[in-house]
């Protein structure tokens, strides 16, 4: 759909927020907390940005974009946009939704990862459901939407941490995650290193994987295949068998063979290329699937994952 940038403003140092609305004033599609939209930019660039406004709103979408010094073009293109310009976006999708059976929700955000977490907090507060929010940033100037967390309904649920305030003011993950109990769910979003630290602390404390929810915006480290041997993929639709050499990804060989696979991050983060596996054992190298989902071996991300078996049969 086409939307217009009706407002662009600085949400924090190096972070711009964009308020999007339909040019004709018609309501936008409904979305739930944790959802994101695909934004189509110049030169075929597609990026995913979490919606961070109240999920009950239909007149606008609000996203926020950090200018990444190592940008591959997405954040630089977004920051160059001006109010009044038109954008093509996709319908909201949600791979990071709130669990319906949660009795208490622990929301952790690092940096720009506050965007989906903020929407979750507002949804839970509106429903009167038990939760707490913990938000970490390098310093106060880099904490996006800080005023929404220090004033109003979210203030009593919010705990803020700043790296420049000294060790005593930093988050203690071991203490925070020390009590995993049935019905308690953990949600984390932010830089890859932050998410990995949270996941490792949760695992050490004995959290059930079913109760841990995370969303990466970028890979914590470049995807590394545990075994770079050659293998083959078979397309279930026409029976074609395609060789995957050591130096090519599954996505690359599929595209070369004329098989269209939607991609965006190419880092195993966004989940756009998620593909069903009908036979064979994938070698998972992504940051998208949970450990339980990987153990099922019935889907994988061909942008970075490979195969432990000589042949993978794909639902393509």
TrEMBL record:
MF term (GO), any: oxidoreductase activity
Cofactor: FMN
InterPro entries assigned to the protein according to its UniProt record, in alphabetical order: 2Fe-2S_ferredoxin-like_sf (IPR036010), 2Fe-2S_ferredoxin-type (IPR001041), 2Fe2S_fd_BS (IPR006058), Beta-grasp_dom_sf (IPR012675), DmmA-like_N (IPR054582), FAD-bd_FR_type (IPR017927), FNR_nucleotide-bd (IPR039261), MRET (IPR050415)
PROSITE patterns: 2FE2S_FER_1 (PS00197), 2FE2S_FER_2 (PS51085), FAD_FR (PS51384)
Ranges of residues in domain 2Fe-2S ferredoxin-type: 231-316
FAD-binding FR-type domain ranges (all copies): 1-99
Pfam family, one: Fer2
Keyword vocabulary terms for this entry: 2Fe-2S, Flavoprotein, FMN, Iron, Iron-sulfur, Metal-binding, Oxidoreductase
Protein name in the entry: Oxidoreductase
Organism of origin: Pseudomonas cavernicola
Origin organism lineage: Bacteria, Pseudomonadati, Pseudomonadota, Gammaproteobacteria, Pseudomonadales
